UniProtKB/TrEMBL annotation:
This is Electron transfer flavoprotein subunit alpha. It comes from Rehaibacterium terrae. The electron transfer flavoprotein serves as a specific electron acceptor for other dehydrogenases. It transfers the electrons to the main respiratory chain via ETF-ubiquinone oxidoreductase (ETF dehydrogenase). PROSITE patterns: ETF_ALPHA (PS00696). Belongs to the ETF alpha-subunit/FixB family. PANTHER family: ELECTRON TRANSFER FLAVOPROTEIN ALPHA, ELECTRON TRANSFER FLAVOPROTEIN SUBUNIT ALPHA, MITOCHONDRIAL. Residues 4-185 form the Electron transfer flavoprotein alpha/beta-subunit N-terminal domain. Pfam families: ETF, ETF_alpha.
Length: 313
């Protein structure tokens, strides 16, 4: 039977929703046990939150001042040490996971399986390739530990009715000193997080300017939605790059996605393919976005969006 270890992603004492989606992916293996490891300077609050996830047997809390910041080169030796006895080690396919998990795989001497979107067996997985235009089935060696990142947009979050045991652990392993934390720069917003929001309103180059992007923010506020953008809008300087949705931005799966002034390049569509309902507004009836939209409005966004905003009250 499989035993799965999940590396928790967290920030400022709060568990990232991506961890709950990793639990769902792990559950698809029908394993004997799912454990979560929380590495932090003070892991208590995050460990308590992780312990409430359904299907988790125990949470391993590793307290170490060196874990105050998520530095892959510092965390990886500890994860690799804890991974002894586990058949699988999962992390989210987020910035955190993409940084950390290859280091863990290297420590364990295995090849990483990236962006797991479906489980077909204990060592057989499906993942996207070619910007999501094709899905490939990959087979990991059955006699080696499976290290994988989970495509969080493809999995629902696990429930929060659990009551797993929390076990404190000390990891005796040499940590590198050549890598150190300097600073963290991140955008601040009162709006929902883009990667976990159930509603997202995105704007594209069709907005024409940074000032015009305000209509996207106003509509998002009406809907209680997160704000996203196409790469073209980001490159044009309308919004910062942390709002970019797509192959080179964030991969999201909201229940409702509004694409306004976005033509729908394949790189953008890759980032929204798992969205529930897609609504597109564009003046070009031949825009590729309409090929994937559930609801499409052809017209001037500067006329249609204010009308939509007014209808929302």
């Amino acid at each position: 039977m499989s035993n799965v270890l999940i590396v928790a992603e967290h920030l400022d004492g709060k568990l990232n929703p991506a961890t709950a989606k990793c639990v769902s992916a792990a559950a698809a293996l029908a394993p004997a046990a799912i454990d979560i490891v929380v590495l932090a300077a003070d892991p208590a609050a995050v460990a308590a939150e992780a312990a409430r996830l359904d299907g988790v047997r125990k949470v391993i809390a590793v307290a170490n001042p060196a874990n105050a910041h998520p530095i892959a080169q510092v965390l990886a030796p500890q994860v690799a040490k804890i991974a002894a006895g586990y058949s699988h080690v999962f992390g989210p396919s987020t910035t955190f996971g993409k940084d950390l998990m290859p280091c863990v795989a290297a420590r364990l001497g295995v090849a990483q399986v990236s962006d797991v979107m479906a489980v077909e067996g204990t060592h057989t997985f499906r993942r996207p390739i070619y910007a999501g235009n094709a899905i490939v089935t990959v087979q990991a060696p059955a006699d080696r530990t499976v290290v994988a990142t989970v495509r969080v947009a493809s999995w629902p979050a696990a429930g929060t009715g659990g009551d797993a045991a929390i076990e404190s652990a000390s990891v005796d392993v040499a940590l590198p000193t050549h890598t150190r934390f300097v600073e963290l720069r991140q955008g601040k917003s009162d709006r929902p997080d883009l990667q976990s929001a159930s509603r997202v309103v995105s704007g594209g180059r069709g907005l024409g300017s940074k000032e015009n992007f305000d209509i996207i923010f106003r509509l998002a506020d009406k809907l209680g939605a997160a704000v996203g953008a196409s790469r073209a809008a980001v490159d044009a300087g309308y919004v910062p790059n942390e709002l970019q949705v797509g192959q080179t931005g964030k991969i999201i799966a909201p229940e409702l996605y509004l694409a306004i002034g976005i033509s729908g390049a394949i790189q953008h569509l890759t980032g929204i393919k798992d969205a529930g309902t897609i609504v597109a507004i564009n003046k070009d009836p031949e825009a590729p976005i309409f090929e994937v939209a559930d609801i499409g409005l052809v017209g001037d966004l500067f006329k249609l969006v204010p009308e939509l905003e007014a209808a929302l009250g």
